[in-house]
Amino acid sequence: MLRGVSSPRKPNPARRSERSRQAVLDAARRLVSELGYDKVSIEAIAARAGVGKQTIYRWWPSKGAVIFDSILALSADGESIRLPDTGDLEADLKTVMRATVAEFADPAFEAPVRALTLQVVGDPGLAALYREKLSGPVDEAKKERLRSAQRAGQLAADADLDLVLEVLYAPLYQRWQLRSGALTPEYADRLVEITLRAFAPCA
Amino acid sequence: MLRGVSSPRKPNPARRSERSRQAVLDAARRLVSELGYDKVSIEAIAARAGVGKQTIYRWWPSKGAVIFDSILALSADGESIRLPDTGDLEADLKTVMRATVAEFADPAFEAPVRALTLQVVGDPGLAALYREKLSGPVDEAKKERLRSAQRAGQLAADADLDLVLEVLYAPLYQRWQLRSGALTPEYADRLVEITLRAFAPCA
Amino acid sequence: MLRGVSSPRKPNPARRSERSRQAVLDAARRLVSELGYDKVSIEAIAARAGVGKQTIYRWWPSKGAVIFDSILALSADGESIRLPDTGDLEADLKTVMRATVAEFADPAFEAPVRALTLQVVGDPGLAALYREKLSGPVDEAKKERLRSAQRAGQLAADADLDLVLEVLYAPLYQRWQLRSGALTPEYADRLVEITLRAFAPCA
Amino acid sequence: MLRGVSSPRKPNPARRSERSRQAVLDAARRLVSELGYDKVSIEAIAARAGVGKQTIYRWWPSKGAVIFDSILALSADGESIRLPDTGDLEADLKTVMRATVAEFADPAFEAPVRALTLQVVGDPGLAALYREKLSGPVDEAKKERLRSAQRAGQLAADADLDLVLEVLYAPLYQRWQLRSGALTPEYADRLVEITLRAFAPCA
DNA sequence: GTGTAAACGAGACGGTACGTCGCGTCTTAAG
DNA sequence: CTTAAGACGCGACGTACCGTCTCGTTTACAC
């Protein structure tokens, strides 16, 4: 059998050092916070983690993947997400949206989230991974709350829930991304009100 | 007399070579299309443009600025923008949104626009420039059309027009950015309908 | 009980795998021939020999030692060496020197012998080993023949035999090493004649 | 005209920085003395010289070439070499040989000369360069002295002078290289005596 | 016209980081 | 307990670009 140019010799995951994996992800996370995405280098991650560069190259295909993983590891602590359901959709959404606004306004979230965004915009593969691992589960939880509202007659029964989420979140997301306006609790409220009017059940 | 630390010796714009400027912008544009934003290097731009590296560093502060300029030069052909105004807001907006959707779906726009987006997300300064030079004028034209609609009673008189634009465009923009759904003419129509319902004049 | 710094844990030679040892030496020899001394790596030897790297490190202290051993294994096939003794010293030496010249001129000997030389020049320890295992026995055989000649009155009785060997062989060795001249049978003859004149018995 | 795979873009020697060249050669020389040939790395030379690695790779093809050059630069200070000629060949040669022995015994010469030797043995190209730039001129000076001796009837008129030099120097060189014996003034004297007997004029 | 100062192309420079290779050590599983 | 296999921390490799710094050579304005 021909071997061709000899395939890249893939490593055996069973022997992977969990210690090193964690050290790399930690170092990546901290460096991104300190320096911002594009001033982080693989050499710096390796040095900070006390790890050989090869160990990074062995397990991740690119700097982006490491950093993506490091951020993902933060959120994916496995807990299943659940939105508040007091029966009052508008109040519940305002609670959630105000929290989201606060999160985006927190400077500590700035660097890693921008890093994540850059990754996802620039790399279709990471975008898919992002949707699967991060936004997917969260969106599903949100849609669950919306379905509950539909059953309660607070939202049009035939509303496209993906679209509802877009109308609710995309303006906020865009404003943050382009820095085109302030992220205030009032803004959060406004988005909820507008969305509910847009998808109000037919009277 | 001593010169001290001597200020950075800024060049005289009057003597700037238009030939070189164009060559650089062209080269940048083409390289971004061919390789994508982050595989483009200043060295490559200079080589492709047949220009010394110093000529680039003399007139632009960073790679981002060159590429930003090169994309900006495309759009800013100076024509003042004007949206259609047939008197039917919904129809006019659908026309415009369908065109926008088509533009985003065009693969030829993909590389430069993603490059631009990455710039703007990552660099607050470029974000400001972007709002001033690109999105600003376009948004102003859109808002002009919306004001006309307000006068015609087709839109709530007290609607925050910036917010209207966000609700109209941000979902589309986000869908494109995260590749989270198809960009179809129907989607464009839906966004218009929802937005108009959200900001309908109080009956 | 504490082990303290614990000595380097020397392996038990009785359990050594002869199979592995041979495979390593063979692989080393062949790789030196193919690639030359300094492009051979321990990793390559281990891979070619189908042996774990640790097995090499367990039994040899350095790459040099492995290669040295591999070349040594070739020659040291245990036979005791004996020079011809027809009674005519000049004729006998010419026979031997012509053979030596031919050996050095053989391209198949080139790579390993240069490798050996580099080792020996660079590493005093290997130099000692070389003298003990390789050149020593051969030189002793040569000196035996010279003593026979001294008894026969063909060589000064008080000649320093080590010096005789140096005068006889060093020029040849240097010429080969620096590639500073051709190695011909005539050259071999000339060296013998000169040496015999230099150490002729006092008339 | 086809460009092929694009040739390696050779640099323009006119623009070469003499400052950097000297700094590299100095650094190389000192590092070889401190660490010995094979523990010197190009990175270390560049760092010590305060020079970018690329500057070394731009002008030298290999570590060996740098170090070779650095040693060569020492000797090649252009002075024409001249051996003493008192009319007494034996005395003159003993003077020279004793000096040579002393030089080889000097530990300060040890590291660079072994480095040079390793280079020359391992690389035919450097061997040629070595003969041309270093050993050539020196040997020519020695042969000049020998010719003078031939005219004075102190050496066989038909002696092959290259061979005379080999018989004179190669034993010393080999003894140093293999560390097979002490390098003493007496040894130097002995070599001269033996050589002169071997190439004595026919009585 | 001519002189002179600028901007220009070219590209060498000191650096940083890249992604790869090999070192010598350490760990695991099989015999 | 040795072995084959191979991951590990480490450090050097040779390359690509960075942004700065000369080099001559245009080029265009002031004389």
TrEMBL record, chains A, B, C, D:
It comes from the Bacteria. Residues 41-60 bind DNA. PANTHER family: HTH-TYPE TRANSCRIPTIONAL REGULATOR RUTR, TETR-FAMILY TRANSCRIPTIONAL REGULATOR. InterPro entries: Homeodomain-like_sf (IPR009057), HTH-type_TetR-like_transc_reg (IPR050109), HTH_TetR (IPR001647), Tet_transcr_reg_TetR-rel_C_sf (IPR036271), TetR_C (IPR011075). Residues 18-78 form the HTH tetR-type domain. Transmembrane segments: none annotated. Keywords: DNA-binding, Transcription, Transcription regulation. This is TetR/AcrR family transcriptional regulator. Residues 1-20 are annotated as: Disordered. The keyword Membrane does not apply.
